[in-house]
Amino acid sequence: MMREKFDEDLRYLDNLLLEMAMLNENAIKKAILLLDEKDKEIAKEVSNFEEKIDVYEDIIQKHCLKLFVEQQPAAGDLRRISAALKMITDMERIGDNSRDIAEICMLLPIDYRKDKFPLINDMAEATIGIVNDSINAFVNRDIEAAEQIEKEDDVIDNYFIMIRDEIIDIIKSDFDPEAAIDFLMISKYLERIADHAVNISRWVIFSIKG
Q: Does the keyword section mention Transmembrane helix (predicted)?
């Protein structure tokens, strides 16, 4: 009976992590959308997502501490809960990075849209994918998927290098240098988000293998 209750609590933990990951996904998508739509309401949505992510971090922390105290988990279960506590720190920072992207997008000139840098959109989609894959690997206890995350991160790193090189080229033309730096910062924040996903994947591997 105790084990059934514990398993139910672990499933609840998984659901909380998935919901937090969904907030991260929405925050990134909305932030990048601001490149095309300088809409204060969308910017406010990103801020709201970031605040909700902070709330989820607090809820998950309390749930994990409750499991430690009430269930006194051993071995694999202990690693699983400990990993979740570490993962939510990275997930909270993903929310912060999404808000940072939104703030930069709102400062860009109105005519500097995604079509100036199509790779930014591709990089954002790949970044969302790596975040979701890392969380799904934890929930599904899929060590092979977790081990693939670092390879996916290489793709994100390559996007950053391509965007950086493209920016260097266009700065030599009549492109606004300040806007070029803003685009570079957006891609840098996306790269950081992917790095957080790699951290998450490493905690997934720890939770399974030790």
A: no
